[in-house]
Design a protein that fits this description.
alpha/beta, 9-stranded mixed beta sheet, two-stranded antiparallel sheet, globular
Length: about 240
């Protein structure tokens, strides 16, 4: 299977403008993500999909691949679909890699790639041990076969008694077959996806399935949404050196 890794990266952000170019120990965040992703053993190609010349120039000047996409696209998934068309190469599948996770473990990319061999849509999760009420941490519950039943910013499942059921945190890395990605971006918005502000619920509400793998990675998955998150990531990466 020929898989293209795509890192969507927008310059505009209400909470953190210019986030992809934020400095992390002397290097822009988008390059930190790219350098982690390129260590995956499953990708046949890797490209940044952006709508900003500053990000494009940063990536290309570093010797990596980038494409310019429409600045009016509604989300990162649509940006991935356009990047797939622009980049070409006859890829069978795409893995959408978050551009704001500089601590990304490349093992997770390989795990999603493995799930794509038998599924048209896949993502990951890991068991949680704290912060159950934090709405910024998305939770997921699955069927016995490992397909997503629901994603929520609320605690799911609700523990009415002293159940030993685990709580799983969704990890925002997605894999799609090229055929399903084209179909997905044409799906209309749905009530639950808008209520929770979770794009992946649109897939479930339209009756499609998402395979969810429990990652074996022990690495930290920290998204940089605010300048405060950036400070935390800098400290963690500094400790790795």
């Amino acid at each position: 299977m020929k898989i293209l890794g795509i890192i969507p990266a927008r310059y505009s952000s209400s909470r953190f403008p210019g986030k992809p170019l934020a400095d992390i120990l002397g290097k822009p965040m988008i390059l930190r993500v790219y350098e982690r992703a390129i260590m995956s053993t499953s990708l046949s190609g890797l490209v940044v999909a952006t709508d900003d010349n500053r990000i494009y120039d940063c990536v290309v000047n570093a010797g990596y691949h980038a494409v310019m996409t429409d600045g009016n696209l509604p989300n990162g998934t649509a940006r991935c679909e356009e990047a797939l068309r622009i980049y070409g190469g006859g890829f069978d599948a795409v893995i959408n890699i978050q551009g704001d996770e500089p601590l990304l473990d490349p093992v997770m990319i390989d795990e999603v790639a493995g799930l794509l061999r038998e599924n048209y849509c896949a993502t990951l999760c890991r068991e949680m041990s704290e912060n159950f009420a934090d709405p910024n941490i998305v939770k997921v519950v699955m069927t016995l076969e490992g397909y997503a039943l629901y994603f929520s910013r609320s605690l799911i499942p609700y523990k009415r008694n002293e159940s030993s059921l685990p709580v799983y945190q969704h990890i925002g890395i997605y894999g799609y077959s090229a055929e399903f990605l084209r179909k997905y971006i044409g799906l209309s918005d749905t009530p639950l996806s808008m209520a929770e502000s979770l794009e992946q619920l649109r897939i479930l509400e339209h009756g499609y399935r998402i395979k969810v793998g429990v990652t074996g990675s022990k690495g930290q998955s920290i998204g940089v949404d605010t300048p405060e998150d950036l400070v935390r990531v800098r400290k963690l990466m500094n400790a790795e050196i």
